[in-house]
Amino acid sequence: MRLQRFLFRGKNNSTWLLLSLVLLLLLPIPVYLMPDLRTLIFQTVLSFVVFTGIQLISSSIRHFLIGLVIGFVAIIFIWLGAETEQFPIVKFSRAFFTSTFLIFLGYRLFSIIWNSQRITLNIIAAAVSGYFLIGLFGGQLCQFINLVIPESYNLNNGGDMYQLTYFSFTTLTSLGFGDVLPLTPPAQSVALLIGIIGQLYLTILVAMLVGKYLIQEPSEF
Asked: Contacts by 115-118 with C-beta closer than 8 Å and gap 24+?
């Protein structure tokens, strides 16, 4: 019982997940200052995202165990498959398990928001984290495409996981700098999918949050 109370005392706390995702967005700064440590920095921050995600879904034993197993396997392959000289099967496994964990985490985030009776700062943090998760999941989809169809993107020398995640976020936010481009039809389809999902997410979540806010008492926020 003590272990259960310790694990679940901060259940549904979205703050740490949001913090880890913000750190992921700020990666270009330390990567620019320490280019030789690009892979290590990305591995560390992405692992932190998984750890904070496991904490968030610990609202029950079942959800906690599922997230723990998938997340632990994902972390193993994150550290094994980030180097370009690793076997393709390791990279494929990393993208698969990381994507599976992100899908499960996104499902839990949506459940938290959907089942909430009132809008709190924690719910807002969960909604923002969900938007960031779309960008991270898009990077994993791009990784799948690049593994199945090599040279689907015009990547520079270096870690493709970092560059494809960067491409996913710039596509999600409609920035589209053009330094990383999808070169094959499947890669272009994924880029369109990321952009469309991002717009739909904002539209649906904003409508949901506004609706919940209008029916709650002003003092409940």
From this structure: 116/212, 117/212, 117/216, 118/212, 118/216, 118/220, 118/221
CA angle 44, 6, 23 (to 5 degrees): 25
What region, left, alpha or beta, does residue 157 occupy, with left being phi > 0 and alpha being psi -120 to 50 degrees? beta
Tens digits of per-residue pLDDT, 178-194? 888 999 999 999 999 99
Number of H helices, E strands in the chain: 9, 0
Q: Is the dihedral of CA 74, 78, 84, 90 positive or negative?
A: negative
Which pTM was predicted? Answer: 0.82
- Taking only the tens place, the pLDDT of each residue in 36-60 is 887 788 888 888 888 888 888 766 7
